Each structure stands twice: as C-alpha cells, then as structure tokens.
Amino acid sequence: MGPAQEEPLARLEWLIEERQRLGLVLAPSGCGKSHLAAMAVRRLGGLGAEATLLSLRGLREGDWLDLLLDRLPLDPLSAAEPLRPWQKLENRLRENTLMERPTVLVFDDLHEADREALAGIERLVSAAEPRFGRLLVIATIATDAEGRMPADPRHGHLMGHFFDKAAVRVELAPWSEADTAAFLAWAVKRTGRRDDLFSPTASAALARLAAGIPRRICQLARLAVVACDAEGLSQIDPVTVERVWRELVPVTTMQVAPADESHDPAPQAHPRVRPVRRLWG
Predict the structure, then answer these.
(1) Which of 49, 124, 135, 177 is 20 to 30 A from 276 via CA?
(2) 103 bridge partner residues
(3) How far apart are CA 54 and CA 65, in angstroms?
C-alpha cells in the first residue's frame, strides 16, 4: 500500500458514504486491480460494511452465485434453508438493509464473467427494490482484455450498461519512477536488507523497463536480487537490471533495428550487454 492506492481507496469509500450502487476499477493487466480489490474489502469492512470478494476468473457458468453465498457470513440455519440461491442472497441483503449495514460485493475480473454472472450482477446494480438500498457493487475490469471477452452480442451491451451505471470509475495508472523507488526501498527493508540495495539509476531503469507495471516491477526486482546475491554485488546497478530483464522478456519481443543491406551484416542487438548466465543451477 502506498500513495498510488490511497486515492482509489478514498474514492471507493466515498461510494459507501454516498450510498452509490456501482464503482468500477479500470487498469491494464498487472497494475494491481486484484490487490486493490482485496484492500477495499479490508478497508470497507473496517468501516462497518459486510464486504466480500469473488474473482470471476475461470468460473464455470452458473457457479458464481453459489460461490458468492459461500463467502457471505450466513448463519447455519439460513445457509441450510431450502431456498433458491438468489432468494438467499436477497434475504441477506434485506437483513443488512434493516440493520443499516452496507453490503459491499467486490467482483474481480468482471471481463472474465460468463453470461449468467453478468446478467445477475446487472440485476444487483439496476434493481430499485428497497432491499438493494444499502448495496454497493465494485467491479474490476482489465482495459486490455477485449480479446478475452465472451463472443456474445449481449456482453458488449452489458459492459456498456455497467459503464453507464458506474458512479465512479477508478483508473489505476502505472507507477512512476518515484513510486517504484519508494516500493523497492520498502520491500528490501522488509527483508532485512539495507534500503539502498537498488541504486537510484537501477530503480529508474527498472521502472522504465517494466513500463511502470507493478507486477513486472516485482518480477524484475526479485530476479535482480537473485543475480546480485549470485555474483556477490554490494548494490544492484542498471546493468544488472537490464540483464535480468533480458532473462525475463522473450527475445522475440525485443525490437531489433533492421540490418542495412549496404553495410556489413547487423551486429547482435545490444552487443555491450554480456549474456545472462542461468540464475538457477
């Protein structure tokens, strides 16, 4: 957690205070949507809401509602009632409304939801019945996930409906060099190392090569520490960061300048960077 997450969390808290029904968290893959969703459940639960988190990734069609009920703190008698799952959910929402307790349902990876789940969540968002009065739905969506969405004409309509209904759209931006440096200092200090293990230039190089994507920053940082220990370095420098980046990123994704046919064959890309030796064994 850091400044990059505090502002999005504050916006999600505002949704509770203003009794809004829907908020969306938008970001490319790897920018921390799932992490923010988990932190939102903790933060909003600490404010008195009944908050639960369900990831929609990889679920079979029709499973979402049963899994959601499993995550709600239903008492044994309520859970065992011979009622339809949707009726059990509505009863729980009514109980919380009568107790003046907000219900927060956080759905991670909405872009991975099946048709039935999308239709059910749309009903939660759109219903005007009093039992839904203290309900807040928060959904995360990967902005680069268009190719993974179900090939269903209704899907685009439903996703557009969510965007129209959302009271707040929280967009997570990639980390800046300052965010990356602060995270690295905090992370290495947590492991008992000195907080300047990454030199300022190494931290800047890591942020640049990872394009500010937190997931890739973590991957590169771990590999850089492994390489630092393997070679007995006292501090991680930009050369070490670039070497582990080439270990992590497939060669086929690197942009190599085309050879000039009027001269000798083009040398290998980045000839000054020595090959990365295997880090494991």
Answers:
(1) 177
(2) 50, 135
(3) 10
Residues of the chain with pLDDT under 50: 147, 150-153, 251-281
Tokens encoding 129:
């019945």
DSSP character at residue 197: S
- The closest alpha carbon to 38, from 108, 109, 117, belongs to 108
Q: What does the pLDDT read at residue 71?
A: 94
> Token pair for residue 226?
């492994």
Q: Which two structure tokens, joined as six digits, stand for 248?
A: 């992590």
Give pLDDT tens digits for 173-194: 889 999 999 999 999 988 888 8
CA proximity to 171, closest of 146, 143, 148, 207: 143
All domains of the chain in start order, with CATH: 3-171 (3.40.50.300), 177-253 (1.10.8)
Phi, psi of 138 (to 5 degrees): -120, 130
- Collapsing DSSP to helix, strand or coil, 171 comes out as strand
As given in the structure block, the two tokens for residue 257 are 């300048």
Tens of pLDDT along 203-212?
999 999 999 9
Q: Which two tokens stand for residue 243?
A: 């070497």
Which pLDDT does position 146 carry in this prediction?
56
Q: Are 279 and 243 in contact (CB under 8 A)?
A: no
Residues 6+ apart with CB under 8 A from 10: none
Q: What is the CA radius of gyration of the chain?
A: 24
Task: Look at residues 173, 159, 93, 100 and name the one whose alpha carbon lies nearest to residue 127.
Answer: 93
Distance CA 272, CA 281 (A): 25
Burial class (CB in 10 A: 0-12, 13-18, 19+), 184: buried
Neighbouring residues of 278: CB distance < 8 A, sequence distance ≥ 6: none
Contacts of residue 70, defined as CB under 8 A and 6 or more positions apart, other chains included, come to none
